[in-house]
Amino acid sequence: MEIKFEEEQKRAAVYDGGKLIGQCVYEDKGDHWIITTTKVDLAYGGQGLGRKLVDTVASAAREKGARLRATCSYAAKVLTKPGYEDLR
């Protein structure tokens, strides 16, 4: 598995041998980003890939100095956990 931050496509994506199997999509609103979708192929469920995708977007937001919110229910739940306070 390979996770990539694809800024031009406004997402973090996970690939298995070149096949896209999941993504975390965000909207760039300047000083803040909004995660709108986090999806992972069901065949790859239970491996923590959704969390890794959210973490990848969170790391990129930190680097860019952006705050992070989510309309995606999964990402919203992740962002309430310890370790994300600086992005609120």
Automatic annotation (TrEMBL):
Residues 1-88, 4-88 form the N-acetyltransferase domain. Pfam families: Acetyltransf_CG. InterPro entries: Acyl_CoA_acyltransferase, GNAT_dom, GNAT_YJDJ. PROSITE patterns: GNAT, GNAT_YJDJ. Keywords: Transferase. GO terms for molecular function: acyltransferase activity, transferring groups other than amino-acyl groups. This is Putative acetyltransferase. It comes from Lactobacillus delbrueckii subsp. bulgaricus (strain ATCC 11842 / DSM 20081 / BCRC 10696 / JCM 1002 / NBRC 13953 / NCIMB 11778 / NCTC 12712 / WDCM 00102 / Lb 14).
